[in-house]
Amino acid sequence: MRILLIEDDTVLGAAVRDQIAAGGHSVDWVKRLDAAHDAMAGAAFDLVLLDLMLPDGLGLTFLKALRSRGDVTPVIILTALDQVSDRISGLNAGADDYLVKPFDLAELSARIGSVARRYGGNPSPIVTHGALEIDRAAKSIRRGGKPVTLTAREWALLDAFLARPRQLLSKALLEEKLYAFDAEVESNAIEVHVSRLRKKLGHGVIHTERGLGYRLGTP
After folding, report:
1. pLDDT tens digit sequence for 28-42
2. 20 to 30 A Cα–Cα from 174, which one of 27, 148, 165, 206?
3. Burial class of residue 37, CB neighbours in 10 A (0-12, 13-18, 19+)
């Protein structure tokens, strides 16, 4: 997934960014709402992590504006505001989840996964695909009953296909999902990851439609 982190605390922001990146997701981190507006105008994000108290305004105002123009990008609020009334306001404004600081980074990862699965149309973390049994929450996979180890990038790529099982995904879209604005992407990066996934999971797991992109194979 490509995630937009809107957080002005440099220590917390760096910790959250590193946690998300370790899970194989790409992260674009901004510290102001004006930068967040620019980022969302220039790219399609799968999830927004939103602080409520920013130097140039309120995250709640940003969220309301997002929803008022019909943007349904999932949003998880990360804030020190811990009153029940604050949570109600955030959820009523259109947030998908609300996490109070300080929070455990592992819990944040779990909530990100839960929201992503819900929007992907499959709230269950367990997916069976042919000989593969995949636990998207635990990031564990078995092929014919035997465990398979994937790198963070391989997991992120597989998860992108699992979230859109019938869709054709272009190379450009996959690069956008896996890499942030400032990441250097080699021209054959997606091809390399796809090749490695096929070796580990089976050659039919991902189909190439030449000149168009890739699609999850039929089990």
Report:
1. 999 999 999 999 998
2. 148
3. middle
